[in-house]
Amino acid sequence: MLWQFIVGGIVCVLNVAIHALVKTTAVRVAHREGSKKRANPSLFLIIVRTGGCSVR
Fold first, then answer.
1. How many domains does the chain have?
2. Which tens digits make up the pLDDT trace of 9-40?
3. Is 37 helix (H, G, I), strand (E, B) or coil?
C-alpha cells in the first residue's frame, strides 16, 4: 500500500509540473500576442481567455 502512495504522489507531482508548463507557455504567448496592435482587441481577449480556461 505504501508503494501505491509513492507512485500516486509521483504521478500527482508530474501532473502539476505538466500543467504549470502548459500554463506558462499560454501566458507567454498571450503576453507576446497582446503587445501587438489589433483591430478588434475585445475579440482577441475572448479567444485568449477561452484558451486559458481550457488549460485549467
1. 1
2. 999 999 999 988 888 887 788 788 777 777 87
3. coil
